[in-house]
Design brief:
The structure is a single chain. This protein is an alpha/beta fold. It is built from 10 helices and 8 strands. The chain has 2 domains: about 1-180, 3-Layer(aba) Sandwich (Rossmann fold), CATH 3.40.50; about 190-310, Rossmann fold. Helices cover about 45% and strands about 15% of the residues. β5, α7 and β6 form a beta-alpha-beta unit.
């Protein structure tokens, strides 16, 4: 019955999509005062583009705070937003796996870009099964490459504003370079033997490589992966060996596995604290510092640094 219902909903979505494509772009800007209508999946794409595009574009991100993109399925409302858009940007690399059919259909009538798939394969991480790690926004240099692809598409659609978009991109990327350097310096202050980041799922591989931090994720690259007792026990052993003082929860992930690690370490005589909440697959609420890409990244660095140095709350 669930499969039948899912197929029915998908059929409705495709019908809406096909009927909408016939209306063309004339209807897309009705609610945006002539601005280019940009729709993204995750806010890690949408918020930077809103800064770079400024008053030239109107950006809608489908996935808000606390939303897990690995499991997300497009709603009827999402289909409508996507249909009305002038351009769609998603991360790709199998992050939004449940939306690929929708993107393929949308791409028949408008520009749809998986910005992460412009990143060279030599820069991408894979797990033991060969699956690509899609969490590329945690390496600032890699994310600049991906965002640059989106900006290039905006310039194609708004060629008369090329100079403005290029200048805004360069200004924003300069801020990202500053963030990258400040983050590296702050994380270097953590003693190397305690520079171990333990989280619920394996979203911080690029972050760890960029900042010389060992990363342990109880779950695999996708939140659909199972967490076994051995994963928890091995993590506890690692914490004991290196006397790591804190582990972390994520805003979009169930905290039960991390709580099991804390309880197990405490039973073995190691006082492991909850170091705080990190933003991984989703950013913070709009209007907060953590609701921006720069603010989210800086929050994570500050939270990790304080907890592993021993200055956490």
């Amino acid at each position: 019955m669930n499969k039948l219902r899912s197929s029915f909903l998908l059929l409705i979505g495709v019908l809406l999509l096909l009927s909408g494509c016939q209306t063309g772009k004339d209807s897309s800007n009705v609610d945006n005062q002539g601005k280019l209508n940009v729709v993204t999946t995750i806010a890690q794409i949408g918020e930077p583009l809103s800064v770079i595009g400024g008053d030239l574009i109107a950006v809608t991100s489908l996935m808000g705070p606390g939303v897990d993109p690995h499991l997300y399925k497009a709603t009827t409302g999402d289909i409508t937003k996507l249909e009305k858009s002038d351009v769609i940007f998603y991360s790709g690399l199998h992050l939004e796996a449940n939306m690929l059919e929708v993107f393929n259909e949308m791409g028949k009538g408008k520009t749809v870009v998986a910005i992460g798939e412009a990143v060279g394969e030599d820069h991408l991480f894979k797990d033991e099964t060969g699956a690509i790690d899609p969490h590329i926004w945690f390496d600032i240099d890699i994310w600049k490459t991906a965002l640059g692809v989106a900006v290039d598409e905006l310039i194609k659609l708004l060629p008369e504003h090329k100079d403005t978009l290029t200048a805004n991109r360069d200004d924003y990327f300069a801020q990202l370079d500053k963030l990258k350097n400040e983050s590296k310096e702050k994380l270097k202050q953590i003693p190397s033997e305690k520079r171990i980041l333990v989280t619920a799922h394996d979203a911080f591989g690029y972050f760890g490589a960029a900042n010389d931090v060992k990363v342990v994720g109880l779950q695999g690259l996708s939140t659909e992966d199972e967490i076994g007792l051995t994963d928890i026990e091995d993590t506890i052993d690692l914490l004991m060996e290196h006397q790591v003082p804190a582990v972390f929860i994520e805003s979009s992930i169930n905290p039960d596995s991390i709580n099991a690690v804390i309880e197990g370490a405490n039973k073995n005589g190691l006082d492991v604290q909850l170091g705080g909440e990190l933003f991984s697959d989703a950013m913070g609420a709009e209007g907060t510092p953590e609701g921006t890409y720069i603010g989210m990244y800086a929050h994570n660095v500050e939270t990790i640094s304080k907890a592993l140095i021993g200055e956490g709350e």
